[in-house]
Amino acid sequence: MTTAVYPHLPPDTLKKEEDDSTARELSWLLESLQETLVSLKSGLEECYALLAPIEPGSTLVMSSPRSESVKGHVTRVGTRIVKGTLHLRLKTLPHTHISLTPALPALESLRDLLNQALDCVDITRWTGDRHSAAFISGQLRLLHSILVSSLSLLSGSPLSSSSSPSPSSPPWTSTSTPHSPSDPSYPPNLSLHLTPSAGSLILTVRVLEPVTAEPSLGLVTKLAFAIGAQRRLEHDEMEGVFVVAGEKVRVREKVVVESSADPMMLVLGAKLGALERTVEAGRVGLRVVCGEEVDGD
Question: Quick check: helix, strand or coil at residue 121?
Fold first, then answer.
């Protein structure tokens, strides 16, 4: 079987016919992408609605497995916790009962990114040259990068950038739930950090101590460490020095707890993933028609 054109055309005529065919295919693709943009806007609006502050929200169980370290629940409405109760039984603090209503900076950033994505779709549809492959390609690249960043925030692993905090100053040092002077039950050396992660919330509880504090180990404690009857509270940040509220501190104790699944966040992740794949498919199709390399950006 042959793919040769019959009757045979002169090379210059064949080239012209190929160019005309490619131009028609590109014109059709650009028009179909306008319909795709309408669908994308609808999907983005649905995602934005999932972050709206609409009652009753999602009430999530927040308890540590196989221990009594953390027991409680939180209620998320939109981008903040509107009600939360935690019972803490940590080794370096007295038993503590606290209430918390923090904002969730990652979800606030995600909401801003969804706004940017909606603006990008409107600009692509109503400004510039909708028949320009270069313009549409550039806009789809921007939209895709916004969606990738959104998915990264929702999974709890924001993409690194030059503006990211240094390893000695991770995000939790500035976004932890602050101590409230009006709440005497909230220990001043306690840090609570909430982040989204794959359809749930991750709570990291840290007990901090100043770097200048000298460890006071009694004779019994030293002997217990020496014979292995008692272990130090080992964790991945035990050797680090961090700056919190202008003070250098160490993390004396650290407990990480994952909440029960948040149905709304699971739906949001699925919708964002579908939108990202749709945009990527449009980008690949445009590159193929334009004769560009498909791999990479």
Answer: helix
Q: What is the SS3 assignment for 249?
A: strand
CA–CA separation, 25 and 37 (whole Å): 18
Report whether 190 contacts 236 (CB < 8 A). Answer: no
Under DSSP, the state recorded for 259 is P
Interval 56-85: pLDDT, tens:
999 999 998 888 899 999 999 999 999 999
Category of 86 on φ-ψ map: left (φ > 0), alpha (ψ -120 to 50) or beta: beta
Burial of residue 272 (CB within 10 Å: 0-12, 13-18, 19+) is buried
DSSP 92: S
Q: Is 258 exposed, middle or buried (0-12, 13-18, 19+ CB in 10 A)?
A: middle
pLDDT at 8 over 60: yes
Domain chopping of the chain, boundaries: 13-157+173-289
Give the pLDDT confidence of 221-270 residue by residue, as tens digits.
Answer: 445 445 554 455 666 677 778 888 788 888 888 899 999 999 999 999 99
